[in-house]
Design goal:
disordered N terminus, 3-stranded antiparallel beta sheet, 12 helices, about 250 residues, mainly alpha
Length: about 250
């Protein structure tokens, strides 16, 4: 006789477990759940998790917003691999990360391959100047401190290229606003405009501060703070510690 009171196993049970652990900020638990893939691929279908989500999530978990869930999945996966600082910076689908991870014989081997792959991409990004979402503290925390000198050099290069040039009696500050150090400069002077007239006293202040800041940068980069748009937080909202040593 069939027991009708017995609940059917949800196809998205594994995905839901990952979602709940990521939502709680339980990265250790999230990683342990991921590692189940190497012992039982049927129960822990990490290699096809996004196919499962696409097919079953909205049918079985209507109470959870899909787009929000996907963000939590990505953050949890990146955090478990100690590459959380790359979650926003990399234009790389999470599925590609999982493909690399799941091809290896163990979580440890997969983690190493993913980190090496991402490090190469970030190195190329820095060379191209695509550094808006990279921070020195994030790189150091995730064990990529060796990339920070290159990142700072690129920031100085972008700051040099942002030198305000007078045209038609005014200075455009748009390039400064696209530079991390330029944003810091304008913030300190409380300048929010995109253009200032050459006759405006603030124009002189901007140029003087620019020259002073550039000298400081070129003499000793380490004396300047790590420029960030906002303080980085853990998944449960706690401030991130930057005490981790480089790999």
């Amino acid at each position: 006789m069939i027991n009708l009171s017995k609940k059917k196993t949800k196809k998205s049970k594994f995905a839901l477990e990952l979602y709940e652990r990521s939502k709680r900020g339980d990265i250790a638990g999230f990683q342990t759940t991921m590692e189940g893939y190497w012992s039982d691929k049927k129960q822990y279908p990490l290699h096809r998790i996004y196919k499962v989500i696409d097919k079953y999530w909205e049918k079985e978990n209507q109470e959870y917003d899909l787009s929000g869930a996907l963000i939590l999945f990505r953050d949890g996966i990146f955090a478990s691999l100690d590459i959380l600082s790359f979650s926003l910076a990399l234009d790389l689908p999470t599925e590609d990360i999982l493909t690399i991870l799941c091809k290896e014989k163990s979580f440890k081997d997969g983690r190493r391959e993913v980190r090496n792959h991402c490090a190469k991409i970030v190195n190329t990004m820095i060379e191209k100047g695509d550094i808006d979402f990279l921070t020195e503290s994030g790189l150091k925390r995730d064990g990529f401190g060796y990339l920070t000198p290159k990142l700072k050099d690129k920031r100085i290069e972008k700051f040099k290229d942002a030198f305000p040039v007078e045209k038609d009696g005014e200075y455009s500050l748009s390039k400064l606003l696209r530079s991390k150090y330029g944003k810091l400069l304008l913030r300190d002077l409380e300048v929010t405009r995109v253009k200032v007239k050459a006759s405006d006293p603030i124009a002189k202040e901007i140029l003087e501060k620019y020259e002073h800041m550039l000298v400081e940068l070129e003499l000793d980069v380490e004396t300047l703070p790590d420029i960030q748009e906002t303080q980085q937080l853990t998944l449960d909202g706690e401030p991130v510690s930057d005490d981790d040593s480089d790999e």
